[in-house]
Structures are given as structure tokens and as C-alpha cells.
Design a protein that fits this description.
Two copies of one chain form a homodimer.
Chain A lengths: L2 H8 L47 E2 L12 E5 L10 E11 L2 E2 L7 E2 L5 E14 L3 H21 L21 H7 L4 H27 L4 E2 L1 E7 L2 E7 L3 E6 L2 E4 L10 H10 L8 E2 L15 E4 L8 E4 L7 E2 L1 E2 L6 E2 L9 E2 L21 E6 H4 L6 E5 L1 H4 L4 H14 L6 H12 L18 E7 L11
Parallel strand pairs in A: 12-15
Antiparallel strand pairs in A: 1-2, 2-21, 3-6, 4-5, 6-7, 6-8, 7-18, 8-9, 9-19, 10-11, 10-20, 13-14, 16-17, 20-21
Pfam families (chains A, B): PP2C
Protein name (chains A, B): Protein phosphatase 1M
Organism (chains A, B): Bos indicus
Chain lengths: 461, 461
């Protein structure tokens, strides 16, 4: 993506063109649940009349179908918020082939061996909005994008430190020293590959949805194990935490209009035409009204962490670029997340104002060094969509995890049972630690990934 | 500053105008050392022939002149790097007057009492570059800007929580609830005032330097005590740390082309014309050369935390927007810091490419709650320009502080002596913990601010 492209795409000169009518050329993305749920029950995961909170089924893989690292998974559909479960999940083995540098003069890359060179594992959650299509496409696609991006740099991951040139041939004798001084490590290539894969997947989703005349977007939370490290990449408001006997460590942070206020306000400052005169980029404690005119009220602009007062002018009465607090915060009155995949066609209702320029598809990546961690018997990573975290805190989840695992040491299916129990805890059952009235009516999906005896050492061959 | 202003200022259409020749209208800013150093020695702080590292005098206030909170201060001029000591310092009492809301219909603000309403204290270090003028102007001006900004919001600082309206009159009965939900605290008004004061001071410096035909810029590190809290605001590569018996806590982080790479690269992505075709915004481990053409080399763009490989094109051979590592890293080959005051006229040598659009004057502010901290006898804040931190780590400084204070419990001038000792430690004297060859040849300035029995409770009246 270039700056020129950004301007052409989002800053048309002259009057804005009307949104293109959907032109179905390919068949719509069919609705489905994750493949690993096959055979796990009769429910198709679509709406039915009996969806009282306590009546919605909690689904998890059938006994005997094991997920990577014996991870547990469970999900529940929302309480009639939408026809479909807009969460999606994927997991599997990640097989990276090695591409070796050809000897031809044209210095093209060749796949000399099609066998796996590196293997890893992959778990992903996608929380869709505006329809299930984007999340389904992400679940079908992102792992392939990641595999491709990793294969493009895998040659650089062989050494302890990536070489300056992918060919390994130094142009300048001090190349290794420059790489060393910049502190570039193998894990930076995986982080870069994750960043590129999210962007590639976003482009694929944009093309596919346009071709099928569908709309929608999704968040993406991905965990990848590779060469003794666990990478957690997040774009959106899902969350992953590490739970150990005496530690609860967040492995991701949420990207919402509130947490990314300064970035979003700054873009509106640079390109005010993105707001089409309909919104104010300034933040106020509440939406202003006529009575506030001429008064000095609290406000924040893009460069401010603190607050100040400004004299209210007429333009301050416009609808705020970011409005509402906490779970109610919305970008352009429309979207609750500020990073994710898709949403290429999303516009503010009854306007031509686009959401996409304010959204990032690039994830934030954290790295867990499994060798240093020395995981113990009950150490797990819990990944879940926002439906879980809306009603349970990290500490409450950690408490549930620890007490469940301690009481179920012998059960080979305990991580799957734990995932189901976590889901049930969001539904206001008797043993749930959540406060009354804090039941989750959202789609909820959970992976529980046990770390003991996993991922240490390298699996390259 | 508006987006339009930014475009007019930095993105002229058509050929770039030649830089305006300096038109001295006012007399140049006279060189001086901080006022509180008067009478502290014969040295004027300018270059003289005897400036071997061990011969340069360490200056500190004369005995009997006490600084706020009995803080210690010391400085040393650089080893002939420049004619003048480009560091500057300021400290003093901060007297905030209360402005009360008038009863007139036009709702203008009136100063009803000119007496102090709130008092605080202020310590500031400015590290100049390109001449001493900007740092001197900042030392003369920033505290006045801050006082003015605080007085503009002081009425909002009276209550435990700032009111939605500065008048205190709610337009909407639930105003306090909105402020509460946004989590807006009194300290956010001080943070906002510091952010605005830095920007106001930057504008003053721009005007004054233009009027006097001078150039230059400076970093700014400020500590302010107010209502039981210590605020540390930083724009540049100076540093403040808290040293306690069993804790070393950074109170600031440095803003350099390296630490702000993504912000700087993103601006160049949005406005490629700022680079005038002379620089590449991409980061490589080293500057590329002709031999790299067509090869796949490590690189990073604005959206990447990780690294990837790209095929080198001709445009990648241009000089990098950010080049070099660590202390050698430079923005546009010119500047070692990415935040600060001044530099309005700074251009890349022999070009019209401006540095200013890439620089921020807004500081990052951290808050130390003195009541919660319960400072002990030897707890201090050490503020110093980069000359100190280039050769001493936080831990080394903490070790020097603790051992000095333990051994000098009875000396009423011990904080001043400690500041001098820290400066001497950068000069490679016998008792210095620095490694051989790591002597500082830079200007170095240090404040040591004791926290015991200070700043707790409020001094408003």
C-alpha cells in the first residue's frame, strides 16, 4: 500500500462517487462452523427459537478429535443478536517448506524440496461483525497467508541471526555486524511474517467479498508455535492471557476506538475530508448540545494525553469521531473495534463516509519464549473473543482455570472440559463468579492451550 | 495547529521557495548561564583553551543559594564541541493565580484576585543544538507558558474531579457522571497544561528566533510539583529516574529517531513530498549500495515491528530517513532527537528539506503520587541531560546516589555535592564506575531533587 494508493482510494477529488452496488460474480461465502467441530452435535449454529441464554448449546469437538497440543475449544452462539454465530475458529499444523536460492543468473527463487522444513502449530479466533462472511474467509485463509509469508523468509530463519541478504551472500563484509547492531533476531522475521500475513489476508477478504457482493469484517487473534516460541498476534478486541500457578500475564492488548484514540484522531487531523464535515475529531466527556455553545468544556485532541478546556464552537456540536465509553465506544458511530480484517465497503449509515481508512489490519505481536518459561503442569494460554472478557476479568478466568485443572488432573479431556466450563461461566450458571446481570449474550469462543511439555526445542528437520 | 496550516507550512505546491535569509529585527538572544549559578565562579561557561576533560570546571550554585526542595544542581561544559554550553537549566517556585468566573452576561473571565492560589515548584533542563539560543529562550519562557496554561484551568482543579464546564454550571444534570465515566482526574488537567505549555513555548521560540535571525533547537525535561504530585514531562533524550533504597524507576523515556521510527516513517508515507525524492523512508540494517540491487535484503516499513526481506530497487539506495544506531542514529542525516523545541528553520544541509514536520514538541508526562510513595530519607529524583546517561546506566547512577547519600547524612549541602559527584563520574576520575574510554565529552547538567518531607499535602490556600 502506498501513500498515493491511500489518497486515490480514500480521498477522491470532486464529489464522492456513490457506493458501488454489489455485483455478485462469485457465489456467496457459505456459512459454516469450524471444521474440527464436525460431528459434535446437531446444532448448525444458526438461530433457533429456543435460544434462551441457558438453553443455547455449548459446542466443542467430539471426544477423540484432538486439537494441536491437546488444546481445548468451546463456543456458544449469541442470544439472537444475529442469525449466525459470527465467531469463527481455526487450528492446525503449520508446515513450512524450504525454498532454496537458485544458482541461475536471474537469481530467481526455486522450491527445491517440497517437504516440510519447519513445523509449527496455529490457533486462531475471528470475531465477525456485519455478517459472518469475513470471519469465515479469515478462518479459511489466514493460515495459508502465514505459511506463504513464512516460506518467503524461512531461509533467513536457519541461522541464529537472520542474514542481511536472503541469499546468505554478504555484499559487505560487515553485514553480520550491522544485523547484530540493529538487534535483529529470528523472531523478528516471524513477527514480520505475521504482520504481512494479516495484511495479505485483509486484501484477500476485500477481493472475495467484493466479488461475492457480501460485506462485513472481523477481528483476528492468532497464536503460533514455532521453534520454541509462542507468538500471539492480535488485531481487535479478543484477548489472550497466560495463566500459571502464580502469574496471570496478558499476551495481547485490545484495539478499540478508545485505546487507539490518538492514532484515529490524528488521521482525521491530517485528512479532515475523511469526516466529510459530518463529525468532529475532538473528544468531549459527552456529546455537546446547543446549550454548551460559548462555554468552556473539557476536551482532548490528537496530540493530548491530558485534558484541557476549550470554548465550544458550532463545529464542536457535530457527532464525535469516537463516541461512548468502554464497550459502548464506537468509531464514527458504527464500529466497536479499530483493527481487524475486512470492512472494505463499510460506510457510516446513509453517508459515503468510509470506516476503512481508520482501521488497521496489522496486528500487535507478543512473543513467549517457551524455553525460558519452563512451563509447569497447569500452565495454559487462554484465548477468547470479547464475549468472555466482557463478563470475566483476567483474574476471574485464572481462578477458574486453576481450580478446574487442580480438580481434574487425571481427565485426558480436561482442557476441552475447561473451555466448556469457561463458556458456561459467562451464562450466569450457579457456579459462575460473574455478577448478576453480567451474563454474556454475545458469541463466545475459547481456546485453552496447555503449555507443559510443548513447543520446547525445535522441530525443524 | 490545523491540518491546513500543516499543509501550507510544509507542503508548498510548485517549486519550493528558497529559505528566507535571516532578517535580524531584534537583538540576538544573549548567551548566559542559569540565574541561580550567579557568583558561582569565574567561568562564563564558554570555551577556553584549557578544556581538557579533567580541567573543565564543574559548576554548581554558591553555598547559601538554595534551590526548591533543597535540590542539588551541577553542570559541566563540553570538551570544545561548541563554543558555548548548549545545556540550560531553570528552577523556581510556580505561583498559580486563581481566575474566577465573572458574573457578567458575556461570560468573560476575570482575574478577581491576583494572589497566588496554588503554588508548586519547577525544575527544567534544556539540551540545545545548533547554537545555544533555543535552550536559553526555553529556560526563560517555558515556566511562564506553564503558569499561564495552569491558570487557564486552575478553576477546574479545585474539585476532586474537574467539572465538565469550567464555570462549574452543569448544562446537563449527568455531566459529573460523564466526567467520572471517562476517568478524568485533576492530574489530567496538569498533564494537558504541560502538553499545551510545551507547544506554546515552541511557538514563542519559533517567533523569537525568526525575529532575531538565529537558529537552533533544544530538548526539554521538566519536573513540576503540584498538589502532592510530581509531574515529569519529557521531549527529547534527557532522562529522569527515581532512586529509592530498593527501587530504580525511570520517570521518562527518550524520544529519538530510533524510538519514534514508526511515527516518523508513517509521516513520510503519508507525505512523501517531505523527503523531496532525496531519502528513502524504509529502514535497512545498513545503507544500501549498488551491489545490493536486485537482492533480497532485510527491511522495515512504518507498519512493521518485525523485519522482512524485500528485493532492492534503485529508490532503496537513497539515503535513509533514519540512519545509524544508538547514539549515532540521525533523522534525515541531521538530528539525534525527534522531540523538542525550536528547529523551525532547520533544513538538511544544502537542501530545502525541513526537519520540523517530523519533530514533535509535545512531551510525554509521567505522574508520581507523593502521598502514595511515602518518600524515605534518601529517595531522590535524578534529572540529567544525555551526557550523563551516555556513560552511566540507571543502575550505576542509583548505586552512586545511594552510596554517596549514606556516607554524607549530615551534610546540609549533600544534594548539591551529589550532583557535582555525578558530573565528575562522567569525566573518568578514579572513583568513577564508567568503563575506560567512556568519558563524556558532551555538556552535562544534573538536578538531584530530594523527595523526603516534600510535596506531600496540598499547598493551596
Amino acid at each position: 500500500m502506498s501513500a498515493d494508493w491511500f489518497r486515490r482510494r480514500f480521498l477522491p477529488r470532486g464529489p464522492l462517487p456513490a457506493p458501488r452496488p454489489p455485483r455478485p460474480r462469485t457465489s456467496p461465502v457459505p456459512y459454516r462452523r469450524p471444521r474440527f467441530l464436525r460431528g459434535s452435535g446437531s446444532s448448525s449454529g444458526t438461530a433457533d427459537a429456543s435460544r434462551r441464554p441457558d438453553a443455547r448449546p455449548v459446542r466443542s469437538p467430539v471426544r477423540g478429535r484432538s486439537l494441536p497440543w491437546n488444546a481445548g475449544y468451546a463456543e456458544i452462539i449469541n442470544a439472537e443478536k444475529s442469525e449466525f454465530n459470527e465467531d469463527q475458529a481455526a487450528c492446525g499444523k503449520l508446515c513450512i517448506r524450504r525454498c532454496e536460492f537458485g544458482v541461475e543468473e536471474d537469481q530467481e527463487w526455486q522450491t527445491l524440496c517440497s517437504e516440510e522444513f519447519l513445523t509449527g502449530h496455529y490457533w486462531a479466533l475471528f470475531d465477525g461483525h456485519g455478517g459472518p462472511a469475513a470471519a469465515i474467509l479469515a478462518a479459511n485463509t489466514l493460515h495459508s497467508c502465514l505459511r506463504r509469508q513464512l516460506e518467503a523468509v524461512v531461509e533467513g530463519m536457519v541461522a541464529t541471526q537472520p542474514p542481511m541478504h536472503l541469499s546468505g551472500c554478504c555484499v559487505c563484509p560487515s553485514d553480520p555486524q550491522f544485523v547484530e547492531e540493529k538487534g535483529i533476531r529470528t523472531e523478528d522475521l516471524v513477527i514480520g511474517a505475521l504482520e504481512s500475513a494479516f495484511q495479505e489476508c485483509d486484501e484477500v477478504i476485500g477481493r472475495e467479498l467484493e466479488a461475492s457482493g457480501q460485506v462485513g469484517g472481523c477481528t483476528a487473534l492468532v497464536a503460533v508455535s514455532l521453534k520454541g516460541k509462542l507468538y500471539v498476534a492480535n488485531a481487535g478486541d479478543s484477548r489472550a492471557i497466560l495463566v500459571r500457578r502464580d502469574e496471570v500475564r496478558p499476551l495481547s492488548s485490545e484495539f478499540t476506538p478508545e485505546t487507539e484514540r490518538q492514532r484515529i484522531q490524528q488521521l482525521a487531523f491530517i485528512y479532515p475530508e475523511l469526516l466529510a464535515g459530518e463529525f468532529t475529531r475532538l473528544e468531549f466527556p459527552r456529546r455537546l448540545k446547543g446549550d454548551d455553545l460559548g462555554q468552556k468544556v473539557l476536551f482532548r485532541d490528537h496530540h493530548m494525553s491530558g485534558w484541557s478546556y476549550k470554548c465550544v464552537e458550532k463545529s464542536d456540536l457535530k457527532y464525535p469521531l469516537i463516541h461512548g465509553q468502554g464497550r459502548q465506544a464506537r468509531l464514527l458511530g458504527t464500529l466497536a473495534v479499530s483493527r481487524g480484517l475486512g470492512d472494505h465497503q463499510l460506510r457510516v449509515l446513509d453517508t459515503n463516509i468510509q470506516l476503512k481508512p481508520f482501521l488497521l489490519s496489522v496486528p500487535q505481536v507478543t512473543v513467549l519464549n517457551m524455553d525460558q518459561l519452563e512451563p509447569q503442569e497447569e500452565d495454559v494460554v487462554v484465548m477468547a473473543t470479547d464475549g468472555l472478557w466482557d463478563v470475566l476479568s483476567n483474574e476471574q478466568v485464572a481462578w477458574l482455570v486453576r481450580s478446574f485443572l487442580l480438580g481434574n488432573r487425571e481427565d485426558p479431556h480436561r482442557f476441552s472440559e475447561l473451555a466448556k466450563m469457561l463458556i458456561r461461566s459467562t451464562q450466569g450458571t450457579d457456579d459462575s463468579p460473574i455478577q448478576e446481570g453480567q451474563v454474556s449474550y454475545d458469541d463466545v469462543s475459547v481456546f485453552v492451550i496447555p503449555l507443559h511439555h510443548q513447543g520446547q526445542g525445535h522441530s525443524s528437520r
